[in-house]
């Protein structure tokens, strides 16, 4: 097994076994935990809302949700102005959960979910905005990953990146490693260089408490929105 496919297999196995935990994060029945998540894990909601903000600003109607997880964001997107979403995830359990969620939410006709490793799966077509939220944390080679997102985006590419912190990062790395999942962290200059090297368009990097949100917009789309 190559280093890349070994890495992917670990990520897939980790998320296949954590669907319920992950989904509970968004769909928390307890008022206390809902409050806790919204207060202590603001970045998760902020990075999701920023997708809709960018879509509105740059006239995006379709979204490619790379690493869609349990589909909570995908469903949120079509409920908040996006017409269509294509969600992809390496975990088949996550994809099943996404399909069920979209059915229950009554938006299944506007959502498509497919299972596979984004880097090796076979699919064609483009969406207006391609996003990867909470995904670069688990990506071994971010350059080709972002490049592939760019190939499937008409207007905007957008991702979240966990920042490097002297105390939190090693602890998080260890916590995940003990469960067999590799994690990766980023510095601001690295995120900017990553987006610039793809050469998609203008680059924006926004520091947030947990790391960075970064996006790139095609020059003509940026000009039109000015
Ligand atoms: C932390 S979850 C984030 C889910 C969702 N984007 C959100 O913000 O709630 C990361 C997801 O990325 C998926 N993932 C990681 N690497 C992937 C890859 N190479 N191809 C497709 N999905 C991937 C995982 O299976 C997992 O469901």
Characterise this structure.
The chain is α/β, with parallel strands linked by helices. It has one domain (3-225): Rossmann fold, CATH 3.40.50.150. The chain has helices spanning 3-16, 19-26, 31-40, 42-57, 72-79, 92-104, 142-151, 168-177, 188-198, 219-225; strands at residues 62-66, 84-89, 111-115, 127-132, 153-162, 202-208, 211-217. Strands 3-2-1-4-5-7-6 form a seven-stranded mixed beta sheet, with helices on both faces. The model has no long low-confidence stretch (mean pLDDT 94). The structure holds S-adenosylmethionine. S-adenosylmethionine binds next to helix 1, helix 5 and strand 2.
- Number of E-type strands: 7
Q: Which fold name corresponds to the CATH topology? A: Rossmann fold
What structural class do you assign from the helix and strand content? alpha/beta
User: pLDDT average, as an integer?
Assistant: 94
How many helix segments?
Answer: 10
How many distinct folded domains?
1
